[in-house]
Design brief:
The complex is a heterodimer of chains A (about 110) and B (about 110).
Chain A lengths: L2 E5 L2 E4 L5 E8 L5 E7 L5 E9 L2 E4 L6 E6 L2 E6 L8 E8 L7 E2 L3 E5 L1
Parallel strand pairs in A: 2-11
Antiparallel strand pairs in A: 1-3, 3-8, 4-5, 4-9, 5-6, 7-8, 9-10, 9-11
Chain B lengths: L2 E5 L2 E5 L4 E8 L3 E9 L6 E6 L5 E4 L2 E5 L3 E6 L8 E9 L5 E3 L3 E6 L1
Parallel strand pairs in B: 2-11
Antiparallel strand pairs in B: 1-3, 3-8, 4-5, 4-9, 6-7, 7-8, 9-10, 9-11
Classes of the chains: A mainly beta (about 110), B mainly beta (about 110).
Chain lengths: ~110, ~110
């Protein structure tokens, strides 16, 4: 069966510091991969998605970037965090065609 | 632009008190509508996919239905463990990405 791992579960970072969140998927090949941000009381906002190694599509212009160095690895990064980057970050995967999406347990990011 | 709204924003039920959650959507051709359950501090857990109007899916105390403009998640005789936020999402026919609604926060009191 397929599993998705995200780490860390929680992270507290100062403003201006760098960020690296990692997501890996097991048990499937060539998945579509997604990064979402969820603000309190709001829907999931799609940040990035990838259909293959090195292929990244950005949905929202922002202070973040994503990379896919391996088939089942997806990384969310920032060079300098802003207060507005605080939130709950979720990684998800799907088979080709996009249905359904399966989520990891998320990273709670707090910026001080 | 594809949009999803959910109502009510929050719902409190007594154990055993059946009710329904609503998901209204606007999409340029529906490829699929999805229901998820999300517990606090966790990622969403996939529940159902619905593809066409008239379709129904069931899982334990939950039943999802679909029309051309909305979907309902019916909860029959809920238990406290059904307390969670329920999210609805749509996938347009011309895309791979999902558009999520803001969710309904359900509390079931013993």
């Amino acid at each position: 069966s397929q599993t998705i791992h995200q780490w860390p579960a929680t992270l507290v970072q100062p403003v201006g510091s760098p960020l690296s969140l990692e997501c890996t998927v097991e048990g499937t090949s060539n998945p579509n991969l997604y990064w979402y941000r969820q603000a309190a009381g709001r829907g999931l906002q799609l940040l990035f998605y990838s259909v293959g190694i090195g292929q990244i599509s950005s949905e929202v212009p922002q202070n973040l970037s994503a990379s896919r160095p391996q088939d089942r690895q997806f990384i969310l990064s920032s060079k300098k965090l802003l207060l507005s980057d605080s939130g709950f970050y979720l990684c998800a995967w799907s088979v080709l065609g996009g249905q359904p999406q399966h989520f990891g347990d998320g990273t709670r990011l707090s910026i001080l | 632009e594809d949009q999803v709204t959910q109502s009510p924003e929050a719902l409190r039920l007594q154990e055993g008190e059946s009710s329904s959650l609503n998901c209204s959507y606007t999409v340029s051709g529906l490829r699929g509508l999805f229901w998820y359950r999300q517990d606090p501090g966790k990622g969403p857990e996939f529940l159902f996919t619905l593809y066409s109007a008239g379709e129904e899916k069931e899982k334990e105390r939950l039943k999802a239905t679909l029309t051309k403009k909305e979907s309902f998640l019916h909860i029959t005789a809920p238990k406290p463990e059904d307390s969670a936020t329920y999210l609805c999402a749509v996938q347009a026919a011309d895309g791979q990405n999902f558009v999520f609604g803001p969710g309904t926060r359900l509390s079931v009191l013993p």
